[in-house]
Design brief:
Elements: H1 4-8, H2 80-90, E1 92-94, E2 99-101, H3 110-131, H4 158-180, E3 193-197, H5 201-213, E4 221-225, H6 230-240, E5 247-253, H7 259-274, E6 283-287, H8 292-300, E7 304-307, H9 326-330, H10 336-339
Parallel strand pairs: 3-4, 3-5, 5-6, 6-7
Antiparallel strand pairs: 1-2
The structure holds 6-O-phosphono-beta-D-fructofuranose.
6-O-phosphono-beta-D-fructofuranose (F6P) binds near residues 200 and 255.
C-alpha cells in the first residue's frame, strides 16, 4: 500500500504543472470525443475539490463553445476550451495505484488553490512526520503507526520493523500449528472453536474480520464474549458445551486491565475448572507486554502470548487484533493466518 505522503509529496506545489504542448490555446482547441484517445500529463500534485455541483456534460454538438455562456449560475466554468485546459491541468494520475482522478469540473478557483496550498502542505508535512514516528498523542506520549503493521517497511526504526515482522510470523506460525493439529488441546484431537474475550475495539475488529472473511465451513468457529452481561457470558459458554475442551480462548485487551474483559476471563476460567479442564493450556493473551493480562498469562503459563504495540492506538489497535490477522492485509492468498479464525 502506498503511504499517504508517498502520494501527496511527489510534488512541492498544488499548482497545476503547465505543459505548453498539452495545453491547447483557444484557436487550436478541439473537443475530444473520448478521453482514452488523449495523451494526458501525469498529475503528481494533490488536488482540492470544493463541494459544488458539477457542470453539465458538454455535448459534442457544441464543441466550438459558441453556444455556451462562459460561466453558469454557480460560477462554474462552461467554456469548452477552458474546461479542456482545466482537464489537462488538473487530471491526477497515480501510476503505481493505477488511479486517475479528474477534478477539473469541480468549481474551485485558482485563488482557492492558492489559499489552501499552505494549509495542505502543513497537513502533508504533519503526515510525513507521523509516518516518521513523531509523537502524535501528546497525552500518552506515543507514536501512531497502526499502518506499519500492514507495511513494516514504513516503520521509522529498524527495530520496529523487526518487531512487527517477528510478531506477525509468530502469529501466523501459531495459527498454522493450531489448524494443522500440531498444537492440540490437552483432551486430544484438534481445536474446533475460538472464544474471543474482549470489549469495544478489542472485539469489534475481530468480529468485523470474521464476519467479512469467514468461509461457510470454517475449520474453527469463532464466538465472542464482548460485554460483562453475566447471562450473555453464560450463554456463550453453554453454547460451547463439551467443545469447551477443544476451545482456544483469545483474551484481547491492549491495556490488559479492562474490568469487563477481566470479568469475562474469570467466568471462562471458572467454567474450565468446573469441567476439570486446564485453562492455561488453551488460553492465549493478546495485550501490551508487561500489562496485568500479560503478567497473568506469563505466570500461569498460558499456551501463547502475543503483543499489542503501544503505537497502535484507539480502535485501530483492535482492528487486527493487532496480530492474528496480518495476512488479511498483506497476503490474501496466504490463508494460513485466516484459517485459525474461521
Ligand atoms: O483493549 P482494552 O485496553 O481492553 O480497551 C478496551 C476499551 O477500549 C475501547 O476499545 C476504546 O476506548 C473501548 O471501547 C473499550 O472499552
Amino acid at each position: 500500500m502506498a503511504s499517504i505522503s508517498g502520494i501527496c509529496f511527489s510534488s512541492q506545489s498544488l499548482k497545476p504543472r503547465k505543459n505548453p504542448f498539452l495545453r491547447p490555446t483557444s484557436s487550436a482547441f478541439s473537443l475530444p470525443t473520448h478521453s482514452s484517445s488523449l495523451s494526458i500529463p501525469i498529475r503528481n500534485s494533490p488536488r482540492i475539490a470544493t463541494p459544488h455541483s458539477l457542470p453539465r456534460h458538454i455535448s459534442p454538438d457544441h464543441s466550438d463553445g459558441s453556444a455556451f455562456p462562459t460561466k453558469n449560475n454557480h460560477g462554474l466554468e462552461k467554456d469548452p476550451g477552458e474546461l479542456w485546459r482545466r482537464y489537462v491541468d488538473w487530471l491526477y494520475q497515480h501510476k503505481d495505484l493505477g488511479l486517475f482522478l479528474d477534478v477539473s469540473r469541480v468549481g474551485f478557483t485558482d485563488e482557492f488553490v492558492t489559499q489552501m496550498e499552505p494549509r495542505l502542505q502543513a497537513a502533508f508535512k504533519a503526515m510525513e512526520d507521523l509516518e516518521k514516528g513523531a509523537i502524535a498523542n501528546p497525552d500518552e506520549g506515543r507514536m501512531v503507526g497502526h499502518y506499519w503493521l500492514r507495511s513494516p517497511e514504513l516503520a521509522p526504526k529498524p527495530i520496529l520493523k523487526s518487531q512487527i515482522e517477528k510478531t506477525l510470523d509468530a502469529v501466523c506460525d501459531f495459527a498454522e500449528d493450531i489448524i494443522s493439529g500440531k498444537i492440540t488441546p490437552p483432551s486430544g484431537g484438534r481445536f474446533t472453536q475460538i472464544l474471543s474475550v474482549g470489549i469495544g475495539g478489542s472485539a469489534l475488529g475481530p468480529q468485523f474480520v470474521s464476519e467479512a472473511l469467514a468461509p461457510d465451513n470454517p475449520p474453527l468457529k469463532i464466538r465472542f464474549i464482548d460485554n460483562t452481561d453475566p447471562a450473555g457470558i453464560d450463554h456463550q459458554i453453554a453454547q460451547l458445551g463439551p467443545e469447551l475442551s477443544s476451545t482456544l480462548v483469545l483474551v484481547i485487551s491492549k491495556s490488559g486491565g479492562t474490568p469487563e474483559t477481566r470479568n469475562g476471563l474469570l467466568e471462562v476460567q471458572k467454567a474450565f475448572r468446573e469441567a476439570n479442564l486446564d485453562f492455561s493450556k488453551q488460553g492465549v493473551a493478546i495485550t501490551q507486554e508487561g500489562s496485568l493480562l500479560d503478567n497473568t498469562a506469563r505466570i500461569e503459563g498460558w499456551l501463547a502470548r502475543f503483543p499489542m504495540f503501544d503505537w497502535v492506538g484507539g480502535r485501530t489497535s483492535r482492528c487486527l487484533p493487532s496480530v492474528f490477522f496480518r495476512r488479511h492485509y498483506r497476503e490474501l492468498t496466504s490463508e494460513k493466518c485466516l484459517k485459525v479464525l474461521h
